[in-house]
Amino acid sequence: MVAAPARTKLTLAGLSTVVAIVLAVAALPQARGDGTRASADDEGLVRYLTAGKLQFTRQQTQSGRCPARCVVYRFVCSADCSVKTTTRITLPGADVVRRIPGSYQAGVPRVIAVTPGARDRRRILRNLAKAKVKTKLKARGNLGGLDLDLRTFRFKR
Description:
Layout: H1 12-26, E1 46-48, E2 56-57, E3 60-61, E4 64-65, E5 70-77, E6 81-90, E7 96-104, E8 110-114, H2 118-126, E9 132-141, E10 146-154
Antiparallel strand pairs: 1-5, 2-5, 3-4, 5-8, 6-7, 6-9, 9-10
């Protein structure tokens, strides 16, 4: 005798679990074709283009080469907006804080380069494993929209 196949019941709890998993996967940030990942907040005025860990080296920026070791991260505005960036490098002891305001055009990637003083550069190099870079982008659109994006980076060793 052949046993009849077991019937499965799709309960309301099982269905809601499947729907929750599908929605969670759809909400994950997608990879971009240029090697960068979008930030989790794609609908805002501003989003980060930098992913992963930051380098603490001499780097090329839009305004030329950093005169000394600097911290560089990138972002882009989805509409014309004014952005206040705050970069806080947390170290054992006192933190290094830099604020840079500016107005930016939509769709043009921007680079923020923060060059700490010589004393702070030595502290960062000594404590590279413990150091973190906490960034805040506060964007105000020309039409009145407001967006606040926060991100914490670590340094490459």
